[in-house]
C-alpha cells in the first residue's frame, strides 16, 4: 500500500533535557486507520504536533505526500487535518460560520454545498446556526472534526477524539470515523479507550517515553502477544492434578472444584491447547460441567507490554 507519511529518526528534546521523541521511524499507509497508543506523556501529542507544524523536531525528517516537511511544509500541511485533544475554538461563533472560516484559512474558495455535506455527515446541520458554546461536549467535538475536514484533507489526526464523550456518542463517533475511511481519508488516532483501537484500527503502534516500542497489524499483534485463559468447572473436586493434566499450564483453584488454564502466550495456539486439555481430562476420567474461555484484548497486551518496559506501575 502506498505510503502517505514517513518519519525517519524523528526526535524532540525540550529545553531542560526532556526527550519527548526518541529516534522514531514510522510509515503510514494510504487509506489505513493507524492507532497510536501510549500512556500520558509518552510522546503521542508531540509526534502529532511535529507532523502538523506545531512542534519543531530536534532531529530527523518528516515526509508527507512526497514533500519534505522542513522545506515544503505549506504544501504538505494543506492536505493534513487535525482534531486536537483540547476544545480550542471560538465558542461564540455559529457552527456553520466557524467551519467555513476553517476552510478559508487554507486558501480554499467558499463552498456551501461541501460545508453542508460535512455538517450533515456529523449530524450538525440542524445546529448550524447555534453558537458552539451552547452545544453539548460531544457536539463540540464533532465541530472540531468538521473544522478539520473543511479543507478536505487526505490525512487526518484525531487526538483523543472521544475524550469526555459518553458511550452512545462514542459509538456515533466511531461510525463517523469509519465513514471518513470509506471516503479515502487516512486516519491516525490516539485514544485511551483501547476498545476503539481494537475495533477500528488496521495497525497499532505503541509508544512510551518517546520510543516507538512496536508497530504491527492489529490482528497479528494480538495473535502473537495474546494469551488464552480458560476456567473449567469440575464435576468433582480434585486434591491433586494427574500427570496427564499437570503437563498443561493449569492451576487447581483453591477449592479444588475448578481449573484455570493460562497459555498460548506468543504462539496464538491457546484455543488448540484448551481443546487438547479437555481431551486429556476426558481421557483421565475427570468429568467437568462447564468451560469459559477468554482471549486477550488489546488492552491486556498494551498493559503487559508497558509493564515490561516499566511504563505501568
Automatic annotation (TrEMBL):
Q: Tell whether Transport is among the UniProt keywords.
A: yes
A Pfam family annotated for this chain is ABC_tran
Classification via InterPro entries: AAA+_ATPase, ABC_transporter-like_ATP-bd, ABC_transporter-like_CS, ABC_transporter_ATP-binding, P-loop_NTPase
Q: Fetch the PROSITE patterns from UniProt.
A: ABC_TRANSPORTER_1, ABC_TRANSPORTER_2
Q: Cite the GO molecular-function annotations of the record.
A: ATP binding; ATP hydrolysis activity
Q: Tell me where in this chain the ABC transporter domain is found.
A: 5-234
Name of protein: ABC transporter ATP-binding protein
State the organism of origin. Qipengyuania flava
Name of the gene encoding the protein in the UniProt record: yadG
